[in-house]
Amino acid sequence: MESFVHSHAAHCESGVVSSLLTHAGYPISEAMAFGIGNGLTFAYLPIVKIDGMPLVAYRMPPKSILKTVEKRLGLNVTIKKYSNPQSAREDLIKMVDAGKFVGLQTSVYWLPYFPPEMRFHFNAHNLVVYGKSDTGFLISDPVFEHPVEVEYNALDKARFARGVFAPKGACYTIEKIPEKIDLAKAIKKAINRTCNMMLYTPFPWVGLRGIGMMKRAILKLPNHPHKRYASLYLGHIIRMQEEIGTGGGGFRLMYAAFLSECADVLGRDELKTASSMMGEVGDKWRIFALSCSKACKGHEYFVEEISQKLQECRDSEERVYRFLKGLKL
Amino acid sequence: MKRDEAPQDNIAMYQGGRKALYAVADEGTFEITQSSGWSVEEMATLQAVDEFGRLEREAYRDFLEGTLSPLAAWMYRRRMSLATLSQCTGFWQWNIKRHLKSNIFKTLSPKKIALYCDVLDITPEELHHPKEPQ
């Protein structure tokens, strides 16, 4: 049986895709998996509530990185779901015994190795099972520094959590990799797709338009009848941007790493420029988070200043996408 | 963000672990850097945790006074909002709101109690006697 090498990544889904592909014989970095999987986006959905707060997303919905990478590289991924924990566990044991590395979708809340403060009800976490012991499965969770072991019962609970995105024991393996992969073609397609979505989306809550929508919502915060709301709202944005494993700046820094790798693959130095521009965008988002946190603590309350910072993020992002479009990849 | 600018605030909730961030290395390329946490992120997370703690304490107080059922305290202890509990159990929100009332909770069938216990990962005994919040 091939031995498994754990690697530390910023985000769960891109980390798992990178890890599974690398072990299947096609070494690929997390940033590359994220980039060609079209992971980057921005969405602000005031109608969809998470614990009473609007949905703020800096990446595409769960499973989309896996599915897009599968399509772009022409892989063969098998995804299975189960109706009961018993058969899910037995099947997983069989796969592990056969020497397979298996990606799982689980809840965050019910994973025992997560620090208590970081457990929230999010059902689309991803991790890799690479072996088993007498009492449980050996797990490589890409957002943690080291592999862990989880008892059978605890993992069943996490795999069969209910609610939105209920995993239903979902597990996936990469079955086949084509002999020839045209990475350059996949990169070009992915970059154009992301730029088009961010710049020209018809939906007001997606892309740059979505950022504008969030800005207008922030400006209205002082009118909210509940005093605590504004503080909780800004805290919620910070968590979606920094806490939930984004690699910093709401995935923008990871995307900068992707662009820099693309420069080497395509042999286009302009992409290095785009990479450092995207790096600055990520830094601007972090400055935005910092000013949100000051307002949260209630020292001062400048919605004007916060929305100004957000506008800078939006404008500098627009410059990157226009620059990338101008390269005619 | 340069590599040496990656925050190293040693935040307690990481329990000594570190998280991967992307930062610019010496050669000008982006690489994964380990961070022991950022105080900004810590503040936002603790705020969300404290909010559930506050709601749990209020619900526990109302449970002792006899106005709310113990379900409310358990719901917040498990970091669930009404919407989350509704999605997990399949009950409508207005229905759960009724179950949160003490007098109606007492009339719930064992089947409904069992479903709540399953979702909250507790025994019926524990459901009826919530622990005092910290």
What does this structure look like?
The complex is a heterodimer of chains A (329) and B (134). Chain A has a six-stranded antiparallel sheet with strand order 3-8-4-5-6-7, with helices on both faces. Helix content of chain A is 50%, strand content 16%. Chain A has helices spanning 12-23, 30-36, 64-73, 85-97, 152-159, 183-200, 207-219, 227-243, 252-266, 270-296, 303-326, and strands spanning 40-50, 53-59, 76-80, 102-106, 125-132, 136-140, 148-151, 171-176. Chain A starts with 11 loop residues before the first helix and ends with a helix. Chain A has eleven helices and eight strands. Chain B has 134 residues and is mainly alpha-helical. Chain B contains seven helices and two strands; from the N terminus they run ββααααααα. Chain B has helices spanning 39-65, 70-77, 82-89, 93-99, 102-105, 110-120, 124-128, and strands at residues 19-24, 30-35. Chain B has a two-stranded antiparallel sheet. In chain B, α1 (39-65) runs antiparallel to α2 (70-77). The model of chain B has no long low-confidence stretch (mean pLDDT 94). Chains A and B meet through α8, α9 and α10 of A and β1, β2, α1 and α3 of B.
